[in-house]
Design goal:
oxidoreductase, Glutaredoxin, 183 residues, 39% helix, peroxidase, GPX_AS, Thioredoxin_domain, single chain, alpha+beta, two-stranded antiparallel ribbon
Amino acid sequence: MRRYSLVILLMLGTWMGAAQAAECPALLQGDLQKLRSQERIDLCATFAGKPLLVVNTASFCGFTPQFKGLEALYQRYKAQGLQVLGVPSDDFRQEADSSEETAKVCYVNYGVTFPMSETQPVTGSAAVPLFKELAAQSQAPRWNFSKYVVDAQGKVVASFPSSTTPDDPALLAAVEKAIASQR
């Protein structure tokens, strides 16, 4: 009897895992290493069903001061469900050489409280799956601090170039549209 119960539990676990993957949008399937941590960010468990702003970042870019505005945006809308994910990348040769230095820029210099991943490739064939899907739904980042607004169903509703500041009215409108998608 125990053997059959174990088989049934294993089959049920496999079926439930497949059902969860089917419910998780393609954009959010996978995980990323959290910045300066052994923890991983399970994209589906963390962001599924929530509006999301994804930004590829760099510590030594002319747009790096946008961290302050991104944090302000996060604080302004997080009670309404908005999530922000920062993904450092050295694809444009402006990211710090170490996680410690990247973390200092984000957490100490700019007071970032939203999730940040370890440095990841975000362009071309080496891009992590998240950025491959963002590119498929819109376009690949052309520079650091490209911004992608994703609705609660995992669809990109708008993308913005590096020069778009976090307080830009068009970006705010896209964020509010994504927030409305969770209702």
